Amino acid sequence: MGSSSFPPPSREDCEIAVKAINVTKSFGSTHVLRGVDLEVRKGEVFCLLGPSGGGKSTLLRCINHLETPDGGVIWVNGSIVGYHLKDGVLHELPPKKARAQQRRIGMVFQHFNLFPHMTAIENVMEGRVTVLRDSKTLAREKAMARLIQVGLADQADHYPSQLSGGQKQRVAIARALCMEPELMLFDEPTSALDPELVGEVLAVMKDLANSGTTMIVVTHEVGFARAVADSVGIMVDGTMREMGDPDAVFSNPQDPRVKAFLSAVLEHNI
C-alpha cells in the first residue's frame, strides 16, 4: 500500500475497537470490497448480514489480516492492521509483529477447524502452549476455564469425532477465547450446523455479548441480531448499503437491495 493521509486515532477514537476506512479488495477481476467503511465501539456487538458473495467474510479476513486489502485502512484498538505508519506512508509489518497483532483478534470459522487427533481440551490449550509458550499445566488450567464457560467441561477429554456439530463449534469458541483476544470475529458460526444445534451456539455467543466482549458476527440469524446486536450492517455487492440500529434497519430499510434481502430472509425465518 502506498502513501496516503491516515491520521492517527483521535481522543474520541479511543473507544473505537474497529475502524475501517474505504477498504477495497479484488480477486483477479472480481471486486469483492468496494470502499467499505465500518466503525465498532469497544464492548459492542456488530452483526453483519447480506446476500452470499457480498464481501462479508472477506471483510472479516481483512480485519484480522488473513487477507490484505488492496486499498483503504483498518484500525483495531488504535493500531493499523498489518502495517505501521511512518511519514504518511504505510509500511507492512514484519511477519513476527503481524502475528503478534493477529493474536489479539480471535476468529471462529464456519467449519470448526479442530485438530481431529486432539481432545477438546488439547485443542483449546494448543495455542497457549505453542504460541504463547505457557506451561502445559497453566495452559490446561486456562483451557478448562474456557470449556466451563461454554458448557463443555464434561467433554474435555472427548475427541472431535465424539462431539456434535454444536459442541465442536463451542470448542472452537473456547479455543479462540483461551488466547484472551481483544476482539472476537465470527464468520457464520452456525451455518454448518443442523437447525436443532444452532441454539446452543447462539446461547454461548449471547453470554459473550452480555459480558462486554467486542464482537463482529457475520450471520443470517436475524433473531440473534435483533436480540444481541448494538448495531448491524447490510452488505450487498461489496458495499455497506445500510448500517445502524437493528430495529431501524430491519423494520424500515431504505435501500431496495436491502429490502429484497431482508424480505427473503425474514420470510425464510417465519
Radius of gyration over all CA atoms, rounded = 19 Å
Overall pLDDT: 90
What does the overall shape look like?
Answer: globular
- Distance between the first and last residues' Cα: 46 Å
The string of secondary-structure elements, in order, is: EEEHEEEEHEHHHEHEHEEHH
Annotation keywords:
12 strands, alpha/beta, 6-stranded mixed sheet, 270 residues
In short:
The chain has helices spanning 56-63, 95-102, 120-130, 136-149, 165-178, 195-210, 222-228, 246-251, 256-269, and strands spanning 16-27, 30-41, 45-49, 71-76, 79-80, 83-86, 89-92, 105-108, 183-187, 215-218, 231-236, 239-244. With 270 residues, it is of the alpha/beta class.
How would you characterize the overall build of this protein?
This protein has helices at residues 56-63, 95-102, 120-130, 136-149, 165-178, 195-210, 222-228, 246-251, 256-269; strands spanning 16-27, 30-41, 45-49, 71-76, 79-80, 83-86, 89-92, 105-108, 183-187, 215-218, 231-236, 239-244. With 270 residues, the chain is α/β, with parallel strands linked by helices. Strand 9 (183-187), helix 6 (195-210) and strand 10 (215-218) form a beta-alpha-beta unit. The longest helix is centred in the last third of the chain and has 16 residues, at 195-210. It is globular and about 50 Å long.
